[in-house]
Amino acid sequence: MSNTIFRSLITWLLVAGPFWGRLCAQMYRPSAAVEDRVTALLDKMSLEEKIGQLTLYTTDWGSTGPTIREGYKNDIRSGACGNLFNSHTVSFVRELQRIAVEETRLKIPLLFGFDVIHGYKTIFPIPLGESASWDLEAIERSARVAATEATAAGLNWTFAPMVDVCRDPRWGRVMEGAGEDTYLGCRIAEARTRGFQGKKLGDTDAMLACVKHFAAYGAPIAGRDYNSVDMSERYFREYYLPPYEAAIRAGAATVMTSFNDYDGVPATGNKYLLTDILRKEWGFKGFVVTDYTSINEMVNHGVVADEKAAGELAMNAGVDMDMQGAVYQRFMLQSYKDGKIAMPLINDAVRRVLRLKIELGLFEDPYKYCDETREKNSLLSAEHRAAARDVSRKSIVLLKNEGGILPLKKTQKIALIGPLADNKSELIGNWNGAGNANDCVSVLEGLRAKAPAEITTEAGSDFMAEKSDGLANALALAEKADVVVAVVGETAMMSGEACARGEIGLPAAQEALVMALIKTGKPVVVVLMNGRPLAFPAIAESAGAIVESWWLGTEAGNAIADVLFGDYNPSGKLPMSFPRSVGQVPVFYNEKSTGRPFDPNSKWTSKYIDMPNSPQWPFGFGLSYTTFSISEPKPEKTTFKKGEPLKVSVTVSNTGARDGEEVVQLYVHDLVGSVTRPVKELKGFQKVMLKAGESRTLQFTLTEKDLSFYRRDMSFGTEPGDFEIMAGGNSADLKKVRVTMTE
Ligand code: GLC
Questions:
Q1: CA spacing 20 to 30 A to 153: which of 58, 170, 286, 672?
Q2: 164 CB less than 6 Å from ligand 1?
Q3: Helix or strand (DSSP H, E) at 58
């Protein structure tokens, strides 16, 4: 074990141990009885059958990567494939499971995996959007509904939660995660893991979670998907690593490796990640699956000469299961004979897979997830739609509302304009599971359900191009209306995997449409639908109201109408900074001070000469139809001992005329450290509903772990000295107080 690991482990245990102790109870731990059953089965297995359990193939129902391998049913029959993905519905799963449990020698049931990322059939907001709710219960409930529907359709494993921290909106997969912040990312990773795995593995509505993409996949150079990741270990451990650990300590049963390299070694062959950190430092007992053909791709990375060597590197690094690459299938037998892969390693990998098949109860009842009646009653149920509408409303962020244009009145004449105004196909976003766009409520339908009379509509432009007469028709409708609602943004497939963008503005045709509508002088409400932060400074400057609605899924139109008409007071907060320009990227709230922090009165400071340093809207920002005031944080004491938790209270008041929710955020700045420290870091938040005029005092506790960091010698812990504790409704407008930690 390297010195860094050892030091980190010891200080981690001393400092973070008690904190994690409360959570360790949730961490997946196999029982002795399960181990005994695995041992008995392992003893009967041939090496070929063992390799089959380490093999995962997609069926012909869908492909999420470069190739589809033919003949998977014969692979099941021969025992060469023990796990499938991209196949679902009770009838199809039953057909495939029957082959495994009736036509193979040992009758080992199959795992059925699928990308249930933000819903199975009832589609919820994309994860980045749902993260804007800052409502951990709603987020957990969303994953719970997804698991309930997915397991009703035969599935027992989801390739989620994706917990990759990302500070770069050029990266298309930012839509799948929880944004730029480590602390928020950890809490959401825990909530999603709990939601997918339910009360306990083995329940028919529980499925294996798969925390991905391990690790630091969200930091590709230039924001280009699959690109190299290069950062210091300190930076990695401070900002990118914690959410994976949080998911695992919340019980995540499986981990997926990422496509990128880390410190020069592809994650899929990186023993430091997969064995030293995952197994030795964290004690992870589940199994590791690769991403789609990521073993094979290590040849492209240039760390091995051929696929057989890639399989040996992966297996010896700690990869248990090969997704779609067929590398273990084709070469492991020979690698074993060549002495490149030892049998104990193979046995350990097979053990980890069989453990979880036993934990799921698949040996007792391989068809436990195959109940047609449950499938029929569960998918798109009224209860599930209601849960989707609830979290969708909570995910909407009000970015601007000048002169109280919003909420709309149901008596107003509304001109609903834009390519997304009367659209369903985009609303389910990317990674949309088994969702069907036709099940969605469009914005037009949502608005008309509330105000049937006075809504006229016109696309005005296509997504990427002007529409002949579109602009003229749109302007004509605007002239006759009291207010214009422009629904614009990206197509759902402009974000997600392999969808990096070099520019992050609105498509030009849509930008032109909105600016023309603003020029009419009518009040214009811009409703955005997008999978990443966008930069649109002209509209930000001149639109009357701006609402960020991400891709909200099946209940999008109803949720947006709830907010626009004020039947729900918007409460969302940005989980990621919105840049003024792609030139600012990466722009994030928890930056370092630098030796020349920005000073408007001095030339020689860290700044741009053509725009402010600050983003258009900062992390944690979101408005309401009411107003709130948040007090200075009141620490229980201004001097406290190293190791002691510090209690802090904050009073929040609803100073407006209507009830609403506020997310009170608590930030910390360690003023002097043995290494440079961020000017602020989120260390707590509480979302509260307050009636008009109501005040409430909230209690926070800063633990020693909250104030710890990787010090100059890479040990994890605190350093006595001064701290600023800050509180506010976003990461920029904060009130602060100074406290001192003593030895
Ligand atoms: C894809 C994605 C991964 C997904 C997997 C299976 O390439 O990177 O997130 O779970 O393949 O579809």
A1: 286
A2: no
A3: strand 55-58
| Cβ–Cβ < 8 Å for 606, 598 | yes
Which amino acid type is present at position 168?
D
Do residues 347 and 479 both lie within one domain?
Answer: no
Q: Residues 497, 356: one domain? A: no
Q: Where does a domain end: 565, 584, 603?
A: 584
CB 53 within 8 A of CB 26: no
610 domain residue, yes or no: no
Indicate the number of domains in the chain: 3
Domain extent at residue 672:
628-742
Taking the CA of residue 176 as reference, the ligand 1 atom at the shortest distance is: 9
**Partners of 398 in beta bridges:** 547, 623
Tell me, yes or no, whether 428 and 540 share the same domain: yes
Whether residue 602 is contained in a domain is answered as no
- For the annotated catalytic residues, the residue numbers are 291
Q: Is the domain of 74 the same as that of 149?
A: yes
Give the Å distance between the CA of 290 and the centre of ligand 1: 9
Give 683-735 pLDDT, tens digit per residue: 999 999 999 999 999 999 999 999 999 999 999 999 999 999 999 999 999 99
Whether residue 293 sits in one domain with residue 158: yes
Residue after which a domain boundary falls, among 342, 374, 406: 374
Taking the centre of ligand 1 as the mean of its atom positions, its distance from the CA of residue 291, in whole angstroms, is: 6
- Under the banding of pLDDT at 50, 70 and 90, the label for residue 5 is low
* 349 & 247 share domain: yes
Pocket test for ligand 1, best of 61, 159, 289, 432 (most atoms within 8 A of CB): 159
Q: Is residue 728 part of a domain?
A: yes
Residue 299 is inside which H or E element, if any?
Answer: helix 298-301
Round to whole Å and give the CA distance between 388 and 381.
11
Q: Closest ligand 1 atom, CA of 213?
A: 9
Same-domain pairing of 367 and 399: no
Region 310-323 average pLDDT? 98
Per-residue b/e over 368-404, b at no fewer than 16 CB within 10 Å? bbbbeebbeebbbbeebbebbbbbbbbbbbbbbbeee
| Alpha-carbon gap, residue 89 to 155, rounded angstroms | 8
Instruction: Kindly state whether residues 351 and 494 are assigned to the same domain.
Output: no
Counting ligand 1 atoms within 8 A of each CB, the residue from 115, 431, 495 with the most, and so the one to mutate, is 115
Spacing, Cα 224 to ligand 1 middle (Å) = 16
Q: Does 291 sit in the ligand 1 pocket, CB within 6 Å?
A: yes
